[in-house]
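Entry 0007
Protein: Tryptophan synthase beta chain
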Amino acid sequence: MDSVKYLLNENQLPTAWYNIQADLPQPLPAVLHPGTQQPVTFEDMRPLFADALLEQEFSTERWIPIPDPVRDIYRQWRPTPLYRARRLEKALDTPAKIYYKYEGLSPAGSHKPNTAFPQAYYNAQQGVKRLTTETGAGQWGSSLAIAGVMFNLEILVYMVKVSYQQKPYRRALMEAYNARVVASPSTETAAGRQILAQSPDSSGSLGIAISEAVEVAAQAEDTKYTLGSVLNHVLLHQTVIGLEAIAQFDLAQDYPDIIVGCTGGGSNFAGIAFPFMQHTFSGDKTIEFIAVEPVSCPTLTQGKYAYDFGDTAQMTPLIKMHTLGHSFVPPGIHAGGLRYHGMGPLVSHLVNLDYVKPLAYDQLDCFAAGLTFAKAEGILPAPEANHAVQGAIAQALRCKAEGVSKTILFNLCGHGHFDMQAYIDYQAGKLQTSEYSPEEVAMALAGLPSVNH
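Output (structure tokens):
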């Protein structure tokens, strides 16, 4: 029988996350204290993060056990299905085999709960009462709001203002789970007030929202900061996706030649790619890893690999990553989760080592790809996920042009049911191309900090 989906049962849910830091060919560059420019310590970070999460951030152990209370919640929707996109293959008339791991079955409709629940659990275990965070499109904020209910935590979300205005239903979903949602930049923090004084009509950015969330967490002893991407422990939690996919490819008696993920901070790409990458480090397998980003926020394809702040107000440590500059404010594209000036240090490191190939696509091409996928497979992707869809379709058409059959895997990180205004705007011809010129990128990079490393 030509199977369409490959399923694991609850007993096959991974018992540990895969930590790629154990197998990196070269160790990750140190995160630096902005004052001393020396490597940050555990104690430096304790005001912001739960101890257990910091231990994971610095760990080089290959396997990190998933706590039983977290696995019990994972079982609500995990393991997620691996689909063979047979109808899409037929629509594209490609000899390629296309598979996708579907993360839209979670309570929030995306992959973000994979890290929201562990982060809430570890903070609750430590006696934390409130968590602050930022969110772009709202998928991360929604996920943390749900996790807050599960672990009896108060949740404060600073939502990028343009997304706050574009996506009222995401905001309403967060509020349904008792989260307080504030449009960023706001007048509630010094960082927000400073931005508004300079740009009263600021549409916001993830860097600005991070500044606000970090400021609040740093000032209250019962409050910690959380985030949905970029840092090592966040990417670690997402590896449950790829670990399941490896077992599902065993069921399919197949193995990917190409793996595609969309990238904003790196959590979606890392989740699907990192567990497979251990096989390429060992030389057992050869896989082409492709990270897809928007041309309007070309962090990997046009950014500089350098030390930079993770936020606009320069409150975070200095991280070596591909960056467009911490003052960069991208245009208000609908893929709000990909509008971040930097890239996760692990993904940046692997791009720098040539293990990952970055590509950038325009949002119009990505929405067209999403509709092609929806008409073939019946699932309407989130705008962020459309970048992975476009990347996978481009690879499938490359196979067609070259007359070769390769196996392509991509991570469909969420559905687009809360993003219908984006599709309405696309269908009405209201969305624009928004590619950055090298001159604009150079201007955004002019404010990078001077670092002696």
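Curator remark: The domain at 5-10+67-109+233-445 is CATH 3.40.50.1100 (Rossmann fold). The longest strand covers residues 154-160.
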